[in-house]
């Protein structure tokens, strides 16, 4: 049994990230990348992939509206 190189692991993690952010499930990612489900879950939690995945699913108008609301709230906080 030979351990993968650091570069191999980085490549696997990057592929897993793209698959996860793209909407694939943990079990499918683990199988395709060749790592355990636990490894994929650890990468998701350690590297903030849930937030990236959520950000990908938001539409541009939704994002603009959220930003405008946040800006408005900041302005109100400053003025009170």
Please explain how this structure is put together:
InterPro entries: ATPase_terminase-su_N, Homeodomain-like_sf, WH-like_DNA-bd_sf. Residues 13-58 form the Terminase ATPase subunit N-terminal domain. This is Terminase ATPase subunit N-terminal domain-containing protein. The model has no long low-confidence stretch (mean pLDDT 91). The protein is an all-alpha fold. Helix 1 runs antiparallel to helix 2. It has one domain (6-79). The chain has helices spanning 6-21, 26-33, 37-47, 49-57, 60-79.
Features of this protein?
80 residues; mainly alpha; 5 helices; Homeodomain-like_sf
Short description:
This protein is 80% helix and 0% strand. It has helices spanning 6-21, 26-33, 37-47, 49-57, 60-79.
Report how far the terminal alpha carbons are from each other: 65 Å
What number is the mean pLDDT? 91
Please, how many domains? Answer: 1
Helix content: over 70%
Query: What structural category do the secondary elements indicate?
Result: mainly alpha
Question: What is the percentage of strand-forming residues?
Answer: under 5%
How would you sum up the global shape?
A: elongated
N-to-C order of helices and strands: HHHHH
Tell me about the largest β-sheet. none
Over all CA atoms, what is the radius of gyration? 18 Å
Per DSSP, the total helix count is 5
Got a strand count? 0
Low-confidence stretches are none
Provide the fold topology.
Elements (H helix, E strand, L loop, with lengths): L5 H16 L4 H8 L3 H11 L1 H9 L2 H20 L1
Helix pairs in contact: 1-2, 2-3
């Amino acid at each position: 049994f030979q351990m993968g190189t650091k570069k191999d692991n980085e490549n696997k993690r990057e592929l897993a990230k793209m698959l996860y952010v793209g909407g694939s499930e943990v079990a499918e990612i683990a199988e395709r990348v060749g790592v355990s489900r636990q490894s994929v879950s650890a990468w998701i939690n350690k590297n903030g992939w849930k937030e990236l995945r959520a950000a990908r699913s938001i539409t541009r108008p939704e994002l603009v509206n959220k930003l405008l609301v946040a800006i408005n709230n900041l302005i109100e906080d400053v003025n009170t």
